[in-house]
Specification:
mainly alpha
Length: about 120
């Protein structure tokens, strides 16, 4: 599957739920391509803006659309990645502000410098 095919498939499912893709189509296609890479790498489309563990059960909260999207779009008009946005966000009615990370620190992976 290619990013533009994924775009059409997801758009048909998500728009009726009130979620639009960011109007910056180039950014959206890059994010969708990263989702497809993660699907090939891990077997599931983990959020391209977060570091996945490679364990579907551990990462289930960041399988796109992540469990944080609803709250992010409701509060900020955009998800963490700016992939999914509200209509108001696309129309410039909602301010474009930084969306803070909602994923708990114990679920985030950090480079420890150890192998």
């Amino acid at each position: 599957m290619k990013a533009d095919e994924l775009y059409e498939m997801l758009r048909k499912v998500q728009e009726p739920k009130g979620y639009c893709f960011n109007d910056d189509r180039q950014r959206v296609l890059e994010l969708l391509e990263a989702l497809l890479i993660n699907k090939e790498r891990y077997g599931y489309m983990s959020c391209p803006c977060r570091l996945a563990a490679g364990d579907r059960e551990f990462d289930k909260d960041i399988v796109c659309p992540c469990v944080y999207r609803t709250a992010d779009v409701a509060e900020y008009g955009s998800c963490y990645c700016n992939l999914y946005v509200s209509r108001d966000w696309n129309e410039g009615i909602a301010p474009h502000v930084y969306v803070p990370e909602r994923r708990p620190p114990d679920k985030s992976l950090f480079w420890s410098g150890q192998d």
